[in-house]
Write a structure and sequence with these properties.
The chain is α+β, with helices and mostly antiparallel strands and 339 residues long. The strands form five sheets. The chain has a five-stranded mixed β-sheet, sandwiched between helices. β6, α4 and β7 form a beta-alpha-beta unit. α3 packs across α4 and α7 packs parallel to α8. Bound molecules: acetyl coenzyme *A.
């Protein structure tokens, strides 16, 4: 959309986040399953994660708190928002989506659209792509993007499920994007992709609409109700796709890896992120990780990590920032923006 000669762009106004108070260290996990602090730190870089206290926090309550943090940092009220895009793996209810509940919880005096998306660890980039298209085409002026996840209530916390359960944490991140014309700020491009042939490499298979009845009483343990992952396969594809996506988006926009001031990558495994940076020749000093204290919060990792990096002064206005993610589906994507 153009006003006179000024091109409307999508500007990042603010980030916010919220994590539960309850800290679960690797040593706490040692009491639940056959694992060790050393194994978890060496293989993934995670020291601790946050888990909710059941009955205290919900996907919605974390989302609302992260949204209020982003609104406060932007000095905005809920009614200043025109639309919500909400991403999560497991919603508070099978339906309706938590985005609608968030619209109610934030206390709008008006109705606005709330779009729920299901794109796992790539949810933030999928949301950003939609918000960017809405804003640039003039459909909405200001969009609240939220990723909120509670994993701790759907993990197999025994030795049987240790390859997955040590990785995930609970938390929410939020971001407000809006129309603007500032030359030194704005989204340059967002690229997203999927390859469904690998869906079974990382998923929760049940309950499934193929079963009739969909949910039935089962006295025996059913592993399909818990996340399953071919870790090595996911790892290899994550490194390949994240590197490829960042390389392509830079090339398309005539940007070299050297030009990038800061990279915020999805927080699944510190080794994945190091390998991606290494392949692009970007030093570790140009990134910020939160997985060591929050684990993998899937849809929330990028807004949580970005929020913290901004609060710490590691990312400043005008910086050229690259975002990149990979997750179940497989889905992946990257973004280039001037903060
Ligand atoms: N504690 C101790 N030992 C363990 C644990 C654990 N928590 N988990 C597995 N092991 C054991 C295995 O049983 C195996 O033992 P064995 O050699 O006797 O058979 C050994 O450790 C090695 O297991 P691997 O699976 O080969 O370990 P690997 O080095 O591949 O690391 C990991 C596993 C950390 C899961 C890694 O594969 C990984 O990070 N994968 C990618 C995760 C990811 O990116 N997910 C995507 C995002 S999530 C989303 O989108 C929803």
């Amino acid at each position: 959309m153009e006003f006179g000669v000024l091109m409307i762009k999508t500007i990042i106004r603010s980030f916010g986040f919220s994590v539960p108070d309850r800290v679960v260290t690797n040593h706490d996990l040692e009491k639940m399953m056959d694992t060790s602090d050393e194994w978890i730190q060496q293989r993934c870089g995670i020291k601790e994660r946050r888990w909710i206290t059941p009955g205290k926090e919900t996907t919605l309550s974390l989302a609302a708190e992260a949204s209020r943090d982003a609104l406060k940092k932007a000095n905005l009220k809920p009614d200043d928002i025109d639309a919500i895009i909400f991403g999560c793996l497991v919603s508070d209810h099978i339906f309706p989506g938590t985005g609608c509940l968030l619209q109610e919880a934030l206390g709008f005096s008006k109705t606005i659209p709330a779009l729920d998306i299901r794109n796992q660890c790539s949810a933030f980039l999928y949301s950003l792509s939609i918000a960017d298209a809405w804003i640039r085409s003039g459909v909405y002026r200001r969009v609240l993007i939220v990723g909120s996840e509670i994993h701790s209530t759907s993990l197999d916390k025994t030795t049987r499920g240790r390859d997955v359960s040590v990785l995930f944490g609970d938390g929410a991140g939020a971001c407000i994007v809006e129309a603007g014309t500032d030359k030194n700020q704005g989204i340059i491009e967002v690229q997203i992709a999927s390859e469904g042939k690998y869906a079974d490499k990382l998923r929760v298979a049940k309950p499934s609409s193929n079963d009739d009845p969909r949910i039935k009483f089962e006295p025996e343990f059913n592993p399909h109700l818990f996340p399953s992952m071919d870790g090595k396969y996911v790892f290899k594809h994550a490194v390949e796709r994240m590197t490829q996506s960042l390389t392509e988006i830079c090339k398309k926009n005539n940007i070299t890896a050297n030009d990038i001031d800061f990279v915020i990558a999805h927080q699944a495994n510190a080794r994945i992120n190091s390998m991606v940076l290494q392949q692009l020749g970007i030093p570790e000093t140009k990134t910020h990780n939160t997985l060591q204290k929050y684990g993998n919060t899937t849809a929330a990792t990028i807004p949580i990590t970005m929020s913290e990096a901004v609060d710490l002064g590691k990312i400043n206005r005008g910086n050229l920032v690259a975002l990149v993610a990979f997750g179940s589906g497989f889905t992946w994507g990257s973004a280039l923006l001037r903060f």
